[in-house]
Amino acid sequence: MKTHFSDLFWYIVIGLLVILCMALWLIYVPERYWIDEKWAAFALFSFFLFAFLTKMYWRLRMSTKFWALMLAVLMVHVLAYVPLLKYIQRASWYLIIMPIEAMLIALAIKLVLNVLPDLTTRL
After folding, report:
1. pLDDT in tens, the chain (123 residues)
2. Residue ranges per structural domain of the chain
């Protein structure tokens, strides 16, 4: 896939804005208002999980069924993990659990939509 200059420009601008927002947060927001580390890790790992799954099934991006299934899976993901966060104290557990979850989600997509992931997907 060929990336155009304007796409690359906007990727860089968005990345720099994210870094700027994080820096401003660290500088100006008192530490007592920061969210707990396990919630931040949950949000970060969940983002990467669903971003990777979306990238693996990118050819289905125009399918309403695909997005409905992804939304349902995201809801189940959040509803399952929120109670577990009481017991998960270290973010390293996510590194074990989420790859298994990714395989289960891929299985669900196969069963519901009868589509396999793009195995040439790179991170």
Report:
1. 555 677 788 889 999 999 999 899 888 888 888 878 888 888 889 999 999 999 999 999 999 999 999 999 999 999 998 888 878 777 778 888 889 999 999 999 999 999 999 888 776
2. 1-34, 36-123
Distance from C-alpha of 55 to C-alpha of 117, rounded to nearest angstrom: 9
pTM of the model: 0.73
Nearest partner of 54 among 94, 10, 106, 112, judged by Cα? 106
72 phi/psi in degrees, rounded to 5: -65, -40
Find out whether 56 and 106 touch, Cβ atoms under 8 Å: yes
CA-based end-to-end distance of the chain: 14
Question: What tokens were used for 59?
Answer: 């050819």
